[in-house]
# Entry
Amino acid sequence: MNTARSAKLFAEAQQLIPGGVNSPVRAFRSVGGQPRFIERAKGSRLYDVDRNTYIDYVLSWGPMILGHAHPAVINSVKKAAGQGTSYGAPTELEVTLAKEIRTAFPSMEKIRLVSSGTEAVMSAIRVARGFAKRDGILKFEGCYHGHSDYLLAKAGSGLATLGIPDSPGVPEDFAKHTLTAPYNDIRAVQHLVKEHRDNLACIILEPIAGNMGVVPPAPGFLSALRQLTADNDILLIFDEVISGFRVSYGGAQALYGIKPDLTVLGKIIGGGLPVGAYGGRKEIMDLIAPSGPVYQAGTLSGNPIAVTAGLATLKQLRAQGVYKQLEERSAALAKGIGEAAKKAGIPLTQTRVGSMLTAFFTPGPVVDWNTAKQSDTKRYGKFFHQMLEQGIYLAPSQFEAAFLSTAHSTQDIEKTIRAAHTAFKSL
Ligand code: KE4
# Structure
């Protein structure tokens, strides 16, 4: 596969941008080789600067659930752009999106729009601390909640990929308020709550972990966590930046029937443009400026173009049968990949919730970060490149989710499974 122009651009990019990328996981560090520079995308396809075409299972790390350049999204963004790109004043669009989110996520009685998942998580934690008047937070190893200082403790995603257990530049003072527990280990949480209850403001988790690879909640884990936090007056925050509108129109909280106190959203609600959101119980959210003393602000929060892209995306997701199709195609893909690995005698542990899935190169089981990191990342890297050479673009890290979109056809799935047979045989 000719990648000369990507190579040239990457060399130049590395002179100007740390690691040549604007987000670490894009640099292919954990799978080796060099990233492909993308020129355009349409439907399930990416097209790189060397005219190579790929079936895309990264989908911009989740937002592109309709596939790339969906006509309804593009047309609405084009129209909105003609009306100006940012006003710094309230718009009807923001009211409409807040209403739509609250309809899909009734636990989000009030909502604040921001410009990224990180910003949404940071703000949710701040208002949780302001409401509870306590500093402590508890997160789970392998979960990633963006790059705010005090959450870079045993985080997943890029940090897991790069093997940075914590990050330099985070003062010990910040990290000391952050407790971590193994995912799916309710007894560990009970123990930490017993010891630290008086200083714990909130517990935050991905209700379906996506940042150590996909790790679903163990049966009863979320309900036990909900009960434990309610009994101890600790706020429960669901980080649904990935799972929100991904695993169902109401996210993981609808799927599992659990009502958190606060929820964080991102990715899909911006349709590929920068939008994050946090929201929850009215009495908590009313603490946020200007209605209350907890300060949070943003120049481009609720940006009309980004909100337009988000609204157009959610409208398409409300169409009949969308999630059924995503479920069927994702199940078919997982089945085919599993059969291919078995035929080649490659030990694989597959996890999936709806259209977010992972194939861990380990006999398994995979239930938390400790078991996920047993995966053979070298073998994953070889598999990744074998698939890339065949025009299949998987996440350049074992510890990320693969995603399907409504644009992935049965022919795409069949082609991917055929490529997997070839790739597994070469390992
Ligand atoms: P952003 O600040 O990247 O918009 O969102 C942070 C975030 C928060 N919560 C969850 C559950 C997330 O998955 C993320 C970001 N996800 C990663 C991929 N796993 C973004 C990709 C990247 O870092 O480039």
Observations:
- The chain has a mean pLDDT of 96.
- Residues 23, 25, 61, 116-118, 121, 144-146, 157-158, 206, 210-211, 239, 241-242, 266, 276, 400 surround KE4 (CB under 6 Å).
